[in-house]
Amino acid sequence: AILELLYATGLRNEELRNLKLNDVDREGCQARVMGKGSKERVVPVGRIALNWIMLYLETARPVLLLGPENGLVFVSCHGRKITGDNLIILVRKYARKGKLTIRINTVVSRENFDTLATLPDVANELGADGINLIPVDDHCGEHLSLRKKDIAFFNENIAPRIAERALELGL
Length: 171
Known about the structure:
This protein is 43% helix and 14% strand. The chain contains six helices and five strands, in the order ααβββααβαβα.
């Protein structure tokens, strides 16, 4: 359920660990999470991920939750909040077993597009199999959205360096 939810939504580590039962809207196929800077956001959740969450809630969670109800969707094997390190260990464990393909998804905005040249090295260190670059649309705000000159600069100067380094690393 954790892996499906991470894959389906792109939730951050802390967002997933803090997800509460009443934050998951099964009917609306979405979840309300508290993101960076204490900003609440709503993320769509696919049916497959929701089905896995429901199975987890009905079968595994009741067994894991040994103490009083804490309201969190996911709990550790001791019934408490999962730590950030334990979540990373879980993801890496399944990645090493070959049951998980890691892809790096990052937003490309005006504020970060010129720093992405090192992304293939970061992806390689994490054991990722690929990189997805997601451009920011106009609806994300004028200070973030890419202008035509930003896109041209990225395509001419940065994208070729990313692609070349990614190929060297087998990404």
